[in-house]
Design goal:
The protein is of the alpha+beta class. The chain has one domain. It contains 6 helices and 6 strands, in the order αβαβααββααββ. The strands form 2 sheets. The chain has a 4-stranded mixed beta sheet with strand order 1-6-5-2. Strands 3-4 form a two-stranded antiparallel sheet. A hairpin with a 5-residue loop joins strand 5 and strand 6. Helix 1 packs parallel to helix 6 and helix 4 packs antiparallel against helix 5. The longest helix has 20 residues. It is globular and about 55 Å long.
């Protein structure tokens, strides 16, 4: 239900636990963003993940790498696309309001690169896509991503094997 997503958004501890390995799941956990900040990480696994990972979208204009446009196509087929878009926009507003509480985390800064804005924008993208999944009664990838955000982590990318990368 959308109400559950609103609760997750309102109660999220945005990015407080990034880089900490205290999250359970079958995803790839990374402890640092150093490979993306062009800093030596001395961690071959992190370097390999950095070479293979595609960042999850952080702009509303980017394509959904999981569903493409299939969620919109299905909503349009049942005559609910306009309603779904409006309700997803409402969820984006809740996400943006909740994200105002996030005041940065030094673990999102690597050298001259501050990943805070990318993390925030990716969270809003994920919330919008999770709303579409919920409205179609098909909670999936994006709903799981929102649970990870809720726990203070950043589901930041996806590997060619479709495994989620979580910081």
């Amino acid at each position: 239900m959308l109400e559950d997503l609103v609760t997750i958004l309102e109660e999220s501890i945005w990015f407080e636990r990034v880089g900490q390995g205290n999250i359970q799941g079958s995803f790839v956990k990374i402890a640092t963003l150093a490979p993306w900040g062009q800093e030596a990480s001395n961690n071959r696994d992190a370097e390999r993940v950095a070479d293979q990972m595609n960042w999850l979208p952080s702009s509303r204009d980017q394509n959904d790498p999981i569903h493409g446009r299939s969620l919109e196509i299905r909503a349009e087929a049942i005559g609910l696309l306009a309603d779904h878009k409006k309700r997803a926009l409402d969820i984006c507003k809740v996400a943006l309001t909740s994200l105002r509480r996030f005041d940065g985390n030094p673990r999102l800064i690597v050298g001259p690169h501050d990943f805070s804005e990318a993390a925030r924008a990716a969270a809003v993208f994920a919330a919008r896509r999770a709303a579409h999944e919920i409205l179609l009664r098909e909670p999936g990838f994006w709903c799981r991503a929102m649970e990870i955000y809720h726990l203070g982590h950043w589901p930041c990318g996806i590997l060619p094997s479709n495994r989620l990368v979580v910081y």
